[in-house]
Task: inverse folding
């Protein structure tokens, strides 16, 4: 039966912002030095003609979402922004009422065709891959969920039950989820505080000796300074994946610097995650890495909380890259490969034991992945796309509402702080760290919570 809470989209708009990075970020052999943000506003209408406006924002992130070997980052960025503009026009021919999950589920069926059109019009030799499509469409997804909550005067995470949704999860996933709704896999109140994972990029200075030039902008310059300034307890370490000695030594160096800084603040417990950004040739590399880290420092090994996507994102083309042996030592989470439910099932078959949720893949898709990961007892973490401002708050609200998520990545404050200024004034507890955590209890408003 039709629900009075159902909405339809009556208007949408898109704008772009460009922000230089404070310092370059290197990962997976690639370097980023700027961001283009895609911002979307969506106006929705209920059946009884109530209206509200929702907002969504996300970096294009083409270097991560579409690491082409034949197209330049400028070409892939242009294609992804063109895709964003095309996706927002899909609503012109979509006049149906429904829950945001259903609306996005139907609109996403057009993503592949839209990607082909963009490639043809821009005369590209590649079609934007599925991950790039999801990132480029994610601001629309977020804006729709935000507007839905606002027009119904409810937090969007509290509008995921049978009362609001026309279909159970079996419609979107499979029969294992018959009779279940997303409210079973989300929290009614946000967690009060969540530890933040600080990124240590491959180019980032650990000590003064690593600095070519000190930046005098009031922010820390070295890892030790960041730990002391923000009270950090979680460090995400970017590794090369094709230079074992460098990777092992990098972890040991970080552990030494972190140990010195933590001793100064009287902290005895902290954690690492290691991210190879798909560069490892096989699971043997990961096993060798873990064993050598353990040999060099048992304490550093114990502090590794999980390993992120070590080998190629194309799981179907690399079936030999199974992670079972590594997952016996540490959780191994799927990231770049995770574009839908089928990809999650394949990752499980290949030995992945955890899931990295990212708002940049779409709010709806993140909710589906969170439900499936909990159903299957998988390790859960939430990461970002160097998300600043609104996009970081969106990512944090997701982490705050998913059971089992122990920490959240948030490195926009390191590399793109200028884009945080407006939001930081409204939510200082989310952008100014003192004890290594962000104050997610602030994200309890209508819509996506802020």
Result:
């Amino acid at each position: 039966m039709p629900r009075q809470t159902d909405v339809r989209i009556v208007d949408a708009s898109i704008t772009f912002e460009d922000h230089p990075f404070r310092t370059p970020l290197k990962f997976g052999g690639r370097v980023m030095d700027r961001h283009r943000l895609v911002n979307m506003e969506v106006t929705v209408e209920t059946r009884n003609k109530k209206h509200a406006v929702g907002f969504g924002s996300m970096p294009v992130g083409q270097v991560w979402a579409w690491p082409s070997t034949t197209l330049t980052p400028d070409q892939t960025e242009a294609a992804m922004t063109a895709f964003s503009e095309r996706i927002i026009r899909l609503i012109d021919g979509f006049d149906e009422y429904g829950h945001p999950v259903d609306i996005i589920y139907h609109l996403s069926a057009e993503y592949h065709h839209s990607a082909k059109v963009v490639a043809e019009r821009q005369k590209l030799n590649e079609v934007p891959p599925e991950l790039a499509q999801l990132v480029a469409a994610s601001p629309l997804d977020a804006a729709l969920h935000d507007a839905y909550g606002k027009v119904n005067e409810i937090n969007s995470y509290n509008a995921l039950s049978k009362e609001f949704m026309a279909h159970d999860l079996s419609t979107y996933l499979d029969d294992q989820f018959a009779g279940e709704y997303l409210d079973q896999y989300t929290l009614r109140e946000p967690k009060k505080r969540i530890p933040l994972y600080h990124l240590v990029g491959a180019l980032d200075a650990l000590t003064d000796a690593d600095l070519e030039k000190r930046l005098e902008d009031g922010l820390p310059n070295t890892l030790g300074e960041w730990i002391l300034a923000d009270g950090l307890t979680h460090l995400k370490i970017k590794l090369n994946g094709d230079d074992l000695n460098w990777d092992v030594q990098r972890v040991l160096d970080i552990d030494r610097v972190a140990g010195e800084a933590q001793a100064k603040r009287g902290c005895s417990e902290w954690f690492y995650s290691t991210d190879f950004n798909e560069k490892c040739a096989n699971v043997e590399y990961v096993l060798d890495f873990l064993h050598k880290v353990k040999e060099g420092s048992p304490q550093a090994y114990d502090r590794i909380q999980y390993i992120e996507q070590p080998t190629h994102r194309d799981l179907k083309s690399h079936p030999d890259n199974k992670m079972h042996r590594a997952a016996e030592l540490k959780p191994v989470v799927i990231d770049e490969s995770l574009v839908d439910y089928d990809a999650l099932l394949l990752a499980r078959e290949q030995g992945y034991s955890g899931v990295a949720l990212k708002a940049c893949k779409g709010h709806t898709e993140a909710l589906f992945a969170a439900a499936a990961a909990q159903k299957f007892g998988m390790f859960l973490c939430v990461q970002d796309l160097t998300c600043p401002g609104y996009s970081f708050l969106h990512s944090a609200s997701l982490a705050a509402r998913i059971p089992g998520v122990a920490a959240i990545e948030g490195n926009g404050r390191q590399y793109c702080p200028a884009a945080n200024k407006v939001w930081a004034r409204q939510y200082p507890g989310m952008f100014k760290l003192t004890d290594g955590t962000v104050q997610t209890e602030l994200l309890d408003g209508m819509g996506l919570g802020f």
Notes: The CA atoms of residues 168 and 181 lie 5 Å apart. The first strand starts at residue 7 and ends at 27. Residues 130-151 form the longest helix (22 residues).
